[in-house]
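pasting for the record
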Amino acid sequence: MQKVTQLPFEKPIYEIEDKIEELKNLSRDSGIDLSAQIDTLTKQAEEFKKKLYNNLQPYERIQIARHAQRPTFLDYVRNITTDWVEFHGDRAGTDDRSIIGGIGRIDDRPMLIVGTQKGRTTRENLEYNFGMPHPEGYRKALRLFKHAEKFNLPIVTIIDTPGAYPGIKAEETGQGGAIAKNLLEMAKLTVPVISVITGEGCSGGALGLAVANKVYMLENAYYTVITPEGCASILWSDASYADKAADALQITADFLLKSKIIDGIIKEPLGGAHYEPEVACENLKEMVLKGLSELDGLDEKQIVEDRYKKFRDMGEVKASLF
């Protein structure tokens, strides 16, 4: 397995693991039995890991969500689907690679799978535009949604985006209108829709693919109207207050589940999905199939009503405030 790049708050873990490796090398080179000391340090490292990852602050989870080695959309597709066939283009001359979609089977069940794709290398990030879709990407996604509806296929969207591309060209070609149309048309789809936030789920760029009957999040993902850095820049004129903004925004999975914004949390391996990608993929697959099974048996009208009710029920208004 490729060595995982450590995050700043993980430094104490790596310091203990480096010490364990030093003792192993010393024991091998000197012939001295240091197994007792090694076992003690190993247990301490495991206990520290559990304590650290079970008590993460919001901005620490955001750092995990943004980790460069976190599984991408295509990683999930390769691990959970068979017979995958990618579809291209918005039928207007453009194929936005930041949104990828196609038909595949999950446990022999055919479905449409659409998602945002990030890269790992500079070349990949340029190809996928750092996971930030243009209007053409949303138009491609909507074309595929309509295709799935025509052939009565359930839809799964997998989302990891810092937001829709904010460039001048995107605005000139109708970024806001493309997202708005997706929101409208997804609300009316007569087939089940499952959405999973696997990393970043920012602003309308994420919501344009997440008007679903069931919305799930990976344990260390986040879902928000604005990035913590953007929020900090507005409130304090200083993006370095991003950790403070993350606390105030309450955008992590545990809070969003309590607020009924999402419908479930997908467990990640200790430390994050990038430590054991295959386990993360399997957990996502199980949650998707569970969500679809809960929607099986609903007719087209009930599917639309279920989705409508989900979004209408979000939030509460307390009469005592007026």
